[in-house]
Amino acid sequence: MKLTKERIVDAGMATFAETGYHGLSMRQVAERLDAHAGSLYYHVRGKEELLALMADRVCRHAYDAGGAALAALPPEATWREAIDAQATALRRSLKQHPGGALLLADSPSALSPGGLSLMERLLKTLLDAGVPAEHCGIAADTLLSHVTGFVLQEQTEPQAPTVTAETYADLCARFPLVMEQLPRLGQDEKFRRSVGLLCAGFETLRSA
After folding, report:
1. Where's the DNA-binding part (predicted)?
2. Which of 2, 134, 171, 180 is deepest in the core (most CB within 10 A)?
3. How far apart (Å, rounded) are the C-alpha atoms in residues 43 and 103?
C-alpha cells in the first residue's frame, strides 16, 4: 500500500497509544507500516512534526464533534450550555483516541489549525456571553486544560485499592473533611459538575 502522510499519522497514533511521547520513534512507526524509516521523511520531517500532525488530527475531530453538539442545541440554549457542549465533545473525542489526552498534554505546543479552531470557537462563545476580552484567553485555556487533564486522569487512573473497614474508619477519624468530600459520583456527573463550577467562575467575570 502506498505510503502517505495520513497512513503515517495513523501508525503514529497507534504507536503513541502504546509507548507515549518519549517512547515514540520514527523507526517504530516505520515498522508498523512495514516500511523503511527513511521513507517516512519524504512525507513527515521528523518526530516533532509527526506529533504536531497527530495532535492536530485529535483537535480537528474534537472541533467537528463540538460543531455537531452545538448544532443540536435548541435556539434558546444558554452560553453555559454552549460551553458544556464543547467541553463534553472534546472529552468524548479525546477518549475515542487512545492516548489522545496524553498526546495533547505531552507533545510540544504547536499552532495547529485544529487546536486554534477549538480555541477560536471557545473564545467567541465567551465573548458573546459577555466575558471581558482581557479574561477570555485565560478562561478558554483553563477550560481546555481542565478537560485534557480530566481525560488524562481517566485514562491513567489506577484501580482503587482495597480498603478494609478498619482502615476506612481510621482514615475517617484522621481526615474527616477529605473522606467526607471524596467523590462518590460517576465520572460523567463529576465532569458535568466540574465544568459547571468553571462556568460559575466565568459568570463572575461577566458580572464584573
Report:
1. 25-44
2. 171
3. 20
Taking each continuous run of H as one helix and of E as one strand, the counts in the chain are 11, 0
Vertex 27: Cα angle to 23 and 33 (nearest 5): 110
* Matching residue, cell 458580572: 207
C-beta separation of 29 from 51 below 8 A = no
Whole-prediction pTM: 0.86
Residue 151 near residue 105 (C-beta atoms within 8 A): no
- 107: burial class by Cβ within 10 Å (0-12, 13-18, 19+)? buried
For the record, the C-alpha cell of 83 comes out as: 460551553
* Residue in this structure with the C-alpha cell 478494609, named with its chain if needed: 164
Q: Which amino acid is at 136?
A: C
Element containing residue 15 per DSSP (H, E): helix 5-23
25-72 per-position pLDDT tens digit:
999 999 999 999 899 999 999 998 999 899 999 999 999 999 999 999
Helical residues (DSSP H) of 97-186, grouped into ranges: 100-106, 113-129, 133-156, 165-174, 176-181
**Beta carbons within 10 angstroms of residue 4's beta carbon:** 10
What pLDDT, in 10s, does the model give residues 185-196? 789 999 999 999
CB 144 within 8 A of CB 93: no
The residue among 150 and 99 whose pLDDT is bigger is 150
